[in-house]
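Allow me, if you will, to draw on your knowledge of protein folds for a short while. I have a record of one protein: its chain in single-letter code and its fold written as discrete structure tokens. Could you please explain, in whatever detail you think fit, how the structure tokens follow from the sequence? The record follows directly beneath this note:
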Amino acid sequence: MLLKNTMGGVLLIAGTAIGAAVLALPIQTAALGFTYSLTALVLCWGLMTIGALLVLEANLLIGQGTNLITMAQRTLGPVGQMLTWLSYLFLFYTLSAAYLSGAGAWVQRGLQALGLIWPHTAAAFLVLLLVSMLLISGTRFIDWCNRALMILLLGAFITLLVTTTGHLAPSLLWEQPAQLLPQSLPMMITAFGFAIIVPSLTEYLPGNARQLRNMVLIGSAFPIVLYGLWQMIILGTLPQTTLLHLLEQGHSATQLSHSLAQTLNEPTITLTATLFSIFALTTSILGVSLSLFDFLADGLNINKTLPNKGYVALLTFLPPFLLVMLYPQGFEFALSFAALFVSVMLGILPALMVWRARYHLQLTGPFQVWGGKPILILTMLCFMGIIAIELFNVWQVF
């Protein structure tokens, strides 16, 4: 695997993880304070990285380039296959609906600035067409688009970091009251869902196991570093009471940039934070769409010829677009269950796949996650804990 291709894989992993959720993290974790929230982020990152490495091991054991349906079917049988179908489609159709809606809102706002008034569904449909064309063009084209977007995203973030550093107040980071609340853990877990792109990358970038492992580890390092710095920026410049007010009032994370501008009296920060959110949303759309596209092609056993790609692209985007058009608020309800399906699909199922492949099917591969049975058991128990917290959160709401 060439170094430039490895870097493309690293950026696809990072871009898939760094989505619009980054703007919501400081609001959702404000009650934890900086120290507790950073500690929780590191723990969630470590758990999700183990899950991603288990996906990689299972993928290499079953056959490099296979996707989750084939992996589940060959290791867990029809029950595991059906559970994978249900978890994947529920999660990714709702994620795709959320991203289409969010991107459509930005397109709608941009067109309004040009004097064009488009309905939200038309703007979302335009996003659908553009991303569909990228999918049909192939993974390599998406890779290069993602690289350009990641450069812009990092540039916006560095600019934001520089412009806010002078306003950091140590007292806000260390002296505000903090509570040990586990309710934020499911949202943090969802923010590290980069394992979904791993099967697509082993098909696109075939290489030895060590290179693929390093690609996962390096790619996963980007979001934890960025999230940590982002927590420092927001929790170190905005009072905890402001963030808790945004949470209580149910304001969207887009209000965060407005609060920064008001507190720091620098409109430039609003523009930079807005650009950062747009690039983060766009890279997530590409990663999620590519993962869902390859998942459907694998699960339905469709060869990715040019005519078939259009069919798979239709299957990828038609359900989420109908969800946006017919039930504009429905995906927000569905997303309240996101961590549950992330935990099942990217945590528990990969551990079960590896367990079955190693110890029952006696398969051997070029890469094995360290720790044997204890790490597999611990991983499953941790994700079961996340599921329990998520169900408790949903029960409290309803």
Remarks:
- The chain has one domain: 3-397.
- The first helix runs from residue 3 to 17.
- The mean pLDDT is 84.
- DSSP finds 17 helices and no strands in the chain.
